[in-house]
Amino acid sequence: MSRSKAASTGTPATTALGRAGVDYTAHTYEHDPAAASYGLEAAAALGVEPERVFKTLLVSLDDGSLAVGIVPVDQSLDLKAVAAALGAKKVAMADPAVAERVTGYVRGGISPLGQRRRLQTVLDASAQRHVTVLVSGGRRGFDVELSPTDLTRLTAAAYAPIARSG
To answer: What is the pTM of this model?
Structure first.
């Protein structure tokens, strides 16, 4: 994999990858505002299996703090599983406006990389089955491909089975 530094794709996520010296590949596609699922749209547009494309979701813990769950785009976040992985009694999906404000990204373009502040992060264990995975690069229509090892290192993520079908 080669490091891609296309000027048109400069985002806080690619800045974080560059500063860390991580090899990654940038993938752009034409985003359709009418797409029902940003993640499934990315997988189809890029010709990548949906189980290799991961979405970044923010949850609110019972203590009021926020955390990140990263799961394949063809699955849902299992709230009970992510709560257990985070050591919380209960979590709920974070308000989208709060997620945007805290991360610095817009919904559909929230990257786990280069967020305004580091949040506790859990990556679905299925990522370990792949040599590389794709996550949002920080805007709609832009994903970055990197190794799950680099993703966990840069986000200080823990692996846990937090995805469920449906």
So the answer is: 0.92
